Prior knowledge:
By secondary structure, this protein is α+β, with helices and mostly antiparallel strands. The protein is built from 15 helices and four strands. Its main location: membrane.
Amino acid sequence: xxxxxFLLLLWMFCLTSCNNGNNEYVSxxxxxxxxxxxxxxxxxxxxxxYTCGNFKNVHPLPEDxxxxxxxxxLQDEIHQLAADILKSVRKDTDPLALQKAKAAYTACLNVNxxxxxxxxxxxxxxxxxxxPVISLEDTDIExxxxxxxxxxxxxxxxxxxxxxxLSNYWDPTDNFIYLYRDAISNPSTxxxxxxxxxxxxxxxxxxxxxxxxxxxxxxEPIPFESFLRTVAFYLRDVVGTWKDDEKIIEDVAEIISFxxxxxxxxxxxxxxxxxxxxxxxxVGELQEWTDSQFGEDYPINWVDYFNHLFKASGVxxxxxxxxxxxxxxxxxxxxxxxxxxxxxxxxxxxxxxLFTYTGC
Length: 360
């Protein structure tokens, strides 16, 4: 303890001496942060003011900022340095990765070039059919669990369920599939948006005070519903279906209503009799439970579904693979909702989730 006190006092002495210009070995040029100190304050009275009291004078708060600290300043400097590097002329002597990064950065700034590219949503619809939200025709639509597995495998967006592969702590070669609720979360930046005030917060997806218009009211839609409307209107104009705005708004509201039922765990009737199911079972036992609960005609083969879902792994899923879940009620609710929903609504929801991540 005495040694720690001595080192702390020595450190404070060095800083104070340096800040007063009495130390010829350490200067503010070597440690710019020393200029943040306010040595007119007694450190025993207010240590924070002593060490950081001059920061506001060295780095005044910019007019367009409401949070300003050393880490924010450093982050801005790094961003500016990265931009300067990427804007610089490509050279043959540059590492290959840097050459590619410069090319990608230049392409992003080339608006004319970017405008000629097809939207990822357009390419998706060319392969999988038009988004029913913007379609004028109610064409035959088929949605299967295997198709859902293919979408999750290709795009990495959870649909209906969420999955992880977990290992046995005592045997790392013993893995099992863990199924849990899909929270239907939206993509977000690494650095979250800091709202300046309450009004700003309520105008973002973080504010949950407004309602969906699916109840026929004239209230403002929630932010995510507005986002889906904007995507649908834009894709409708790009594809050229010219579907009526009101019809699109109704379809989007239906998607939001579906998500509200799915998110807490699907649809479970008050009179539902859910068969018991152990939490840790095999995929084969999961199939037996599903057949007993819904009948053998229920359109899911769990082995096939999991093989579609995990096809990129190159691992074959069999009936003997272990399976862990958060409860039979969750399984029943989601499987039941999938069975009762119209294929058109299922496809609308699936494409809405995928388009949320591809961006428009």
